[in-house]
Amino acid sequence: MGFTHVEMYGILDHARKWERGYQIANYFAPYRDSGTCDDLKYLVDLLHQNGIGVILDWIPTHYHHDHQSHYFSVSLHEYDGTNLHASCPSRWGTLYFDFNKEETRRVLFASALYYIDRLHIDGIRFDAVSQMIRRNRQDIPSAISFLRELNQTIHRHYPGVLCIAEETEGYPNLNRNMNFDLKWNIGWSNDARNLLRTPYAERPQHWKQKVLDVLHWARWSDDKMILTLSHDDTDSGAHNSNCILLNLVSHARNDMDKFSDLRNFFAWQICVPSRGHLIHMGDEIAQPISWYQRFCRELSSMDWSLDNSSTLHGQIQQCVRDLNHLYINHPQFWQYGEQDFSMIYEYGPNLIVAYHRGIHNNRRIAIIHNFSNRGYKSYDVPLPGSDPNVARIRHAIEIFNTDYPQYGGSGLFQNQQNEIVHNHSNGKLFKLSIPPLATVVIEENLA
User: What is the pLDDT of residue 237?
Assistant: First the structure.
């Protein structure tokens, strides 16, 4: 599939099966029903043998304290008869850690370093950082200093291990202030999913907020962002089926439009300036029942029967696979992160936006997204006269199109045989065939 890492959640031993691993009772062992520490070590080693890194979902903000639990008559809370770690009750029915207490800092330091040192984890995703560092509109200095110190220690002793923050309140510059490497871009997920559920005729009304502002903040944010489609976006499907990607496009008139929109959605996620992307299991095949609904029915969270190249589900999976390989094989997407980005063109009434990514070996990538259900056999995209590299373009070729037949597309809007770059009175332009609800990727050869 072209993924470089897997992120594992529900790994640390937790109290209740249905809580997905966010009420931790033991910070030094895997979930009892999933296996032993040796089993987890084997899984991590197997992934490493196949060139896949492992990121651990780690919960340092709050912990389980239910003494009536069948499995945990003695929990981390008051395990020695005193209140060693707690601050106050949390909104999840757990207890917040008190980072003024040395006992708290030591146990969490030891837990994080244990998984890195002994299990060879390649990264840690810190859950619920917003509630850890700021509550009731007040910063919590002890938690901030803890994160800064832990991340410094990880970077000093385990170079290359990633420290990733899930922070939802817009706390400024976590990279610099707390030494995180990356941060989840929750805002992108909300905006992109809202755009996906918006009927085509209404999308121009949301053009600036859901598309142009996303590109602006992707380029100018102080933090290094990952664009995420996580369990937080999909697991509430147990109670609200509209959270499932396929149901977000229920306004579309047919399956062709639904899956075209979803392919374009994934291309928007993977091509937009960022430091990477995360896709939740099952989303890449657009399964119609959420993983959590299946999990509650004691079924496999993934519906493997959909993994068939002859179906639209299998074809969208192939599209995601090829998008991942496109990303990996073209350093223009990732070599300098969001820094290698410049706007080419946008026109809200037609729902078309185009932008450049970086240059590598005199080859530059241009991305064109069409968020409308109207296609164009010939569409002029003027190239910016202020861009000095426009004069260097010798020729350009289409290297990817979400409308290819192998992805379930029509195949009627392709540019492989066309001359793409043309001169006009004010400079140069792309003359393109642009499919409805699709993304076209162009590679420019520069002199």
Answer: 44
